[in-house]
């Protein structure tokens, strides 16, 4: 097979599989425009790549591998560019959002309502909620402290949270 014939075979393979190659690159990159660019770059590398005789299957595999590698290169470059664009401003230098007086009042009302609901709960249920939700204890630790099963601690916390959520939703409407 002459070099000219090999070149024609490569062009025929590329033309026949170009739509599939673009679809493959779109799945990797998420962009049709970028995928078309990658497939074109792959063709530029594919056409003069070797003068030795190989099967059409090997040529197609080489073409897909080239598209994949070029796509991964693009994804790496995007990731590096995204990291480079992150703001290096320390969190403490960014001003905090100040709530409006109305938001502050509503928050205070919600806190009062939650406090009232907690005070109405049985002691074990109140302690379970306070430990788990406010203290950061696990349900196993809450159960151990109260001398109850983990399932009971879970029931106490769930029932109390449902009661709180319901009361807050009723007040919101």
UniProtKB/TrEMBL annotation:
InterPro entries, alphabetically? RNA_pol_sigma-70-like, RNA_pol_sigma-70_dom, RNA_pol_sigma70_r2, RNA_pol_sigma70_r4_t2, RNA_pol_sigma_r2, RNA_pol_sigma_r3/r4-like, WH-like_DNA-bd_sf
Q: Which SUPFAM superfamilies match?
A: Sigma2 domain of RNA polymerase sigma factors, Sigma3 and sigma4 domains of RNA polymerase sigma factors
All copies of domain RNA polymerase sigma-70 region, residue ranges: 15-79
UniProt keywords (A-Z) are: Sigma factor, Transcription, Transcription regulation
Q: What's one GO MF term for it? A: sigma factor activity
Q: Do you know which Pfam families this protein is assigned to?
A: Sigma70_r2, Sigma70_r4_2
Q: Where is the RNA polymerase sigma factor 70 region 4 type domain?
A: 113-164
In the UniProt record, does the keyword Transcription regulation occur?
yes
- From the UniProt record, give one GO term of the biological process aspect: DNA-templated transcription initiation
Presence of keyword Transcription regulation:
yes
Query: PANTHER family from the xrefs?
Result: RNA POLYMERASE ECF-TYPE SIGMA FACTO, RNA POLYMERASE SIGMA FACTOR FECI-RELATED
Q: Which family does the record claim for this protein?
A: Belongs to the sigma-70 factor family. ECF subfamily.
Q: Please identify the protein, giving its name as recorded.
A: Sigma-70 family RNA polymerase sigma factor
